[in-house]
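Throughout our pipeline, every protein is held as a single compact record rather than as scattered files. The remainder of this section carries one protein's record, kept here as part of the documentation.

===
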Amino acid sequence: MMMKKINIKEVLKKIIKGIIGTFKELKSVDRSTKIMILMLSFIFSVLIEIGLDFYFKFLVFFVIFNLLFYVGYFLFGILSKPFKFIDNRLMGIHCGIYIVFYVLITESSYSFFEEVNATVIVLMVISYLTFFLAKKSTIGALKICYCIFLSVVIIIQLWSFHIGEYPYTGENEEKIEKIYSQYLKEDSSIYNVLGDENIISDYNVIWYGNQDDKRSRYSNGELKTEVVTIGEFIEEPIGIDKMWRMVYWDTQFDTVPINGHIYYPKNEGAYPLVVVIHGNHSMEEPSELGYEYIGKFLSERGYVVAMVDENYFNGSWSGGYSDENDGRAYLTLKHIEQIFQWNKEEGNPIRGKINEESVALFGHSRGGETAFLSKLFTEISESPEDYGVDFNFPIDIKSIITFGTTYGQYESCGDYPKIHDVNFLAIQGSNDGDVSEFQGKKSYDNVIFTGKDFYFKSYLYIEGANHGQFNTMWGDEDDDFPLSLMINKSELISGEKQREIALKYTYIFLESTLNDREEFIPIFKNNLNGINQHENKRFINGYSDSESYTLVDFDKNSYRYSILTDSGIGKDGDVAYEIKKIRLRDNGKLNNKGMYISIDESTKNIVGFNLKRNIEIEEYNYLSFDMVSFGAKDLIYNIEVEIFDGDGNKVVYDVNELYPLWDSIDSNVMKTESLNDDLGKREGTVFQTVLLPLDYSAKIDNISVIKFIFDEGEYILDNISLIK
């Protein structure tokens, strides 16, 4: 039997004609229904993509639109006229869309996720050809075969959302544990604070709120409050967002209620106050309830913990506010004012429970920036903008803790604000899919010490931690559906472990700064002091305090030092360095400059600094500097540091004998290479503060020259200081 010769030209013409005529020739669904499905798919796809940049929109839009239209049309057809709605041209459109998506997202690098999408394309083409050849046939088996192909395509597409190109193998965990084992401290047990040994009391919980609030837990609260006028802090929403907020909250837009609940010890006494401020999530979700674990833990250990409700400022499916964190800060301070009133009120359950001179703020996400701005607003005597409200907050905020904080959404007079004389701790995860760059470092840099009293600031960067798991209600998805399906969860640590780390550092920080437990401060100077046995995730920390003396930084005129590049090692060329603004993961800039150093075979490997005068070191315990490296082969890098006194005497530090200098932590927040590129660099530009003990240098009493000797690689150096 002779096979009929296939006319490729005619086949292509039919395919093209089929694609163009798809919506005209789909017989089993009437035109109005097809148009409705098409429009709804388009509208939902557009809504889902609001807020993303164009490139990201372009890629994800096609997939979402395709999937929504495909599923909608398929289900409607099956339910109305089984097997009769199917048309080959439908497959033509989706083949075309998927091919475009696949070509754009591949970008010359193949991944498991992209291979799954390639499989989808192949199945679509087979499905298309199967029905194309059987177009005029009434054989039910072929149509059933087509339905099977179609179902497989949908299943594979949905499955591919959950399978990323970066499945976490854990191959580094054994190496990390082995490296850490070399630095374990014998006295680290002091930092094991999560047990029951520090519990001093059981706790009570009291709810407070406005009697007209729609949520009964607040309207029925034991303590009643009034609403707060928020003036010009936010712009009145418009359109559907305004309509939905009016329906959901049933309130005016220029006022917000003072709602919350307070954990406090049952034992008699006045305790420090910790105010917990949630961030931006769905306004329909009670985000403040996601920090109950903090309230219970701290109140049992001698703290009054206020959980404030600021969900009125949060977004929803209908839209949301932006640049509203100053309004959140104003509301936070009104909460504290109200709590202080109750603390003095006869017969009030919390009367006398609070030490008003010992206040700390804790903030997550936008709540972190809210805490920062709250401190700013206590430092000023009048409104920094035309808010239409009074500003007078004599509240002594001693400490601030932030998790995954935002920074820079509020600017005063065109500049980012600075706060003064407060203890500060910023915690961030390497796999934060919401605040992808370490904005807490920006806040850290803008905490300024005047030198009147002792304060310190620190940060902790945790490998494998994300944004949402600090809140028990937000979970492990750092984006809304369906983009949450593109989050790569394989690298995440468990929510339980993430919260345990957060609790440990929160409690130790509060004990250090509010209860004068100085024995806890070393963990913030060097996180190795608190590393437990079998730790297999990397931690990077930074530290500075009000007693530090800066030897070298790159933001001011170099009147204190000059740069030496003539090392005398005998290599050809000069050290390649450049002083410029430090850039973070998504190419955002820090507030300060650093020295970018690139060492290869053609460059000298020493950078030195000649101090303009000899600096006496008798009062200080450490020489410190901040450094980050990129591209180390074995997770850690090494450098040597040489210090010279005015007479030429020298002391040499092999830094790896004291610290594991971790290379920058790579993280794949999203499932595909293209989406990770959209976030910026995979590695985080997070500096490790290195403290070199000066008792090593007993034979010198001053410093005249400091030299750094590098292996080949890329480095950024900043903030060379003396610390007591």
